Amino acid sequence: MREDQDLAEVQREHWQQTYGTHPGMYGARPSDAAVHAAAIFRAAGAGSVLELGAGHGRDALYFARSGFTVLAADFSPVGLDQLREAATAEGLAGRVATAVHDVRDPLPLGDARVDAVFAHMLLCMALSTGEIHALVAEVRRVLRPGGTFVYTVRHTGDAHYGAGTGHGDDIWEHGGFAVHFFPPDLVDALADGWSPAEVHPFEEGGLPRRLWRVTQSLPR
Length: 220
Known about the structure:
Blueprint lengths: L2 H19 L10 H12 L4 E5 L5 H8 L3 E6 L2 H13 L6 E5 L13 E7 L8 H14 E12 L10 E4 L2 E4 L2 E4 L3 H7 L7 E7 L4 E9 L3
Parallel strand pairs: 1-2, 1-4, 2-3, 4-5
Antiparallel strand pairs: 5-10, 6-7, 7-8, 9-10
C-alpha cells in the first residue's frame, strides 16, 4: 500500500472518531459557502444536488430545506447516520439520500445525473493532486450539461501551510487533520474545459482558515 493510501485510511478513522465523539460538531447552521451555492444553483434552475464530504449534514439539510433533492456522500458512516437522523426529525427524509463513499473511487452515479455539485473543504483533504484531478473529472461526468460545481479549499496562503507534519504534494498535517493546500495553478488546471472559474477568497473559523470558494460550470 502506498503512503498516501495509508494516510487516507488514517484520516478516515480520525474523522469517524471525531464525529462519534463530537456529534453535530459543526452545528446546525449552514456554511456561508452552502448559502452562496444554493443561490447560484437556484439561479441556474438546478433541482438536484450532489454534496461531496457531507459529514453530519448541516449543508445537505440546508439544500433540502431550500427545495433541492440531495445526495449526500461521505466516507464516514457515523456522520451520515447523524445526517439521516436529523433529516427524519425535520421531515426532510424524502429529499435527502446518503451514500458512504470514498472520493478516490468513481462516483456512485451514472453520467449526467445531477444539476449541481457542492464540496466544502472536501477537495483539500488528504488527496494527491492526481486524485483531485480524477475526482473533478468524475464531477464533470455526473453533471448534466450546464451544471454547476461549487467547491471550497484551503490554500497556500493559509497559516497552517508548511506547519506540522509534511506528507509531500502540498499536504500538511496539523492537529491530526491532513490538508492539501491549493496553489493557484491547481485551481486553474481544474477549471480546464469548464467556464472560467470564479474564485472568491474568504476566511472561516478562529485561526482563521483561509480559503477559496470556486464556482465553475459546464457548457450547455
